[in-house]
Each structure stands twice: as C-alpha cells, then as structure tokens.
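Fold this sequence, please.
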Amino acid sequence: MIFIGSVGIVLAMPAITASGTRMRVRDLLLAVPRAHNSNPELRRATLVGCCWFAAFSSFWTALSLHLSLPPLSKGAAFAGGFGLIGIAGAIVAQLAGRASDRWGARRVVFAGLGGALVGFVILCLSPTSLVGLAVGALVMDAGCFGAHAATQGYILRTGGDERSRRYSAYMTVYWSAGALGSFAAPALFQAGGWLTLNLANAVLIACGMTLHARRHQLDRA
C-alpha cells in the first residue's frame, strides 16, 4: 500500500518548480531511481549497504524477543540497556570517516563488514551468555556503523553536483532494506530461533562482502 500510495503521489504531483532548483518537484522525486539507474557504482554501494542494514535491523528487532525467553528471561528494560552499545557505534563511525580519508573507503567498508560478520558469529556461538551477546552486539554494531560511515563519505565526496541526489537515493533504499529486516525478524525468529536468525544475518553480511570484493571506484575513493 505504501508503494502504491507513493506512485500515486508522484503521478499526481503538479508541474511546479522546487525552490532553489530548475527541476520540477516530480523530477526531484524520480531522481532517486534515476540516480541508481545511471550509476552502477552507486547501485553496488547501495546493495552492499542493504545487506548490512537489513541484518543490523533484524538483530535489534529480535534481541528483546530472545532476551525475554528462558533461560535469560530478561525484561524490556534490560533489553533497552543494550542500546548503550550504539554509543560505541557512533564513535566508530567518526573513526571510520578519518580512516577512509587515509586508506580509502573500500578498505574501511570491507573491514567494517568483516567486523560485522565476526559479531554475528559470536552471537551464534553464545546464545545464552549475556557477556557473549554484549560482545557480539558491540562488534557487529561497530562494524556496520563503520561500513556505513565510509560509504556515506564516498558518496558525498564523489557525487559532484549530484551528491545530494545520490545520497538521497542511497539512503532511501538503505532504510527500506532496514525496514524489511525488522519486518522479517520476528517471523524468522519464531520459525528457527536465535541461531537461525543470526545465521541468516551472517549470510547477508557475507553476501555484502562478496559484492564489495569486486573491484570498483571505491578503490580510488
């Protein structure tokens, strides 16, 4: 329904000119799919981003469900305390931006994906250990934030006059993938449990690493 409504809005949009640009509002809205269609490097970076953000969102959605069940049997407030791990992710994001300037975005993104994969492996191996869950979440969270920050920097540095449209295109699809991950997490957790959920997330990260391993313009960013 959201997709149908979005298409209806685009079709019904009047041919007015947006403030500060010569483009019509309808063209600005259509700039998101056009940016992906015209730029294969942006498409690839976006697909990689979708892999880690879907996995990231899936984990955080299912974490409270896992903590509430035996043998952990923790309440919602305890699960919310894991959100403090996000502080580490924010710190890593800043460091990743500086590292990208020095060593290139490609290496930083790959390192971030590797960290996220290690984090999900830890989560799979320690389903009933609070320490293991905390360490796994920390490593996974830091890896995803680092990869995201490096990709953002690459898009903004190389986009030229179209960097805002390219960034919007990236973030639109990126957040959509996160929403899908959150939507699928409860069903996947109910069907296969914690191990199945995080194995699926690890596979998503591995797919992102495989896509990113192909040589492309991030080598020069």
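Residues 1-6 have pLDDT under 50 and may be disordered. The chain has two domains: 1-38, 40-220.
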